[in-house]
Amino acid sequence: MPTTIDAKPASNKPEARPLTFAQAIAKGQTPPPAVHPELANEQPVVTIEDFCLYYGQKKALFDINMTVPNGKVTALIGPSGCGKSTLLRSVNRLNDLIDTVKITGKMSLNGDPIYSRHVDVIELRKRMGMVFQKSNPFPMSIFENVVYALRIDGENRKSVLQDVCEKSLRGAALWDEVKDRLHTSGLSLSGGQQQRLCIARAIAAEPEVLLMDEPCSALDPIATGKVEDLIHELRGNYTVLIVTHNMQQAARVSDYTAFMYLGRLVEYGPTSSIFTKPILSDTEDYVTGRFG
Ligand SMILES: Nc1ncnc2c1ncn2[C@@H]1O[C@H](COP(=O)(O)OP(=O)(O)O)[C@@H](O)[C@H]1O
Ligand SMILES: [Mg+2]
């Protein structure tokens, strides 16, 4: 008979192991996200509370709770179809344009409700900049593209427009390339320059948050590098929420990263922690390429 003095008492129950986030979702649950403590020290610009979104019968976002910190670049990552674009478009109510969309929960921009019957959506959208996958300069000069929002607001003083144009193009790291041809068409620029022009146009309006949906996905690697450098440099001066399916890009440009999966926020924290010491095994599996 072997001695059993040091042996652990035999248990007839299997050890209770917590479900992974993905296993909990598979059981129809929506576990709370793992939010790193650093976020508590940030000043929120956008606050999202218990936000759900349905496309008809299909639920696309499940109880999203997160804040977008002031003056930081926050990346939304996750597999294709997990709801990144849906969440981004919900912030400036672009999903309102789809009849079947229903939402529950709350969002606010610097304390002002985004979803309230009394909100003037046009005025709300003026407070946010949006940069899409494909650059969309207006068919007008570089100068007029940049000062577009000011013109709409009735600003016609040449010196004001010139100052804003230069400041915004410098801010978008495009000034040196275009300063001698401000009056040529925005459409004459290369793809990467057009995307930086769209960023200049967005920042000229001094938005409280800049929303970007995969802004580099139509660009070649060199143009991508320039736009990534620019986004990284916007830190401090602008609040950016950027969707990317490219994890290297998230790691390069962002201060904070939010990992989404099947319409849920899974983990949210400083980018370096998300990529090197995430709290959840689900996040680790995703960022190391084991799934998704
Ligand atoms: N206009 C739409 N109508 C119906 N379903 C949509 C629409 N847009 C997106 N979806 C669905 O919502 C889910 C999330 O999509 P999306 O936000 O585009 O994901 P991601 O940007 O992460 O790839 C997907 O299942 C997608 O098919
Ligand atoms: Mg998308």
Automatic annotation (TrEMBL):
Keywords: ATP-binding, Nucleotide-binding, Phosphate transport, Transport. Residues 46-287 form the ABC transporter domain. InterPro entries: AAA+_ATPase (IPR003593), ABC_transporter-like_ATP-bd (IPR003439), ABC_transporter-like_CS (IPR017871), P-loop_NTPase (IPR027417), PstB-like (IPR005670). One of its GO terms (cellular component) is membrane. The keyword ATP-binding applies. CDD domains: ABC_PstB_phosphate_transporter. GO terms for molecular function: ATP binding; ATP hydrolysis activity; phosphate transmembrane transporter activity. GO terms for biological process: phosphate ion transmembrane transport. PROSITE patterns: ABC_TRANSPORTER_1, ABC_TRANSPORTER_2. NCBIfam families: 3a0107s01c2. PANTHER family: ABC TRANSPORTER I FAMILY MEMBER 17 (PTHR43423:SF1). This is Phosphate ABC transporter ATP-binding protein. It comes from Humisphaera borealis.
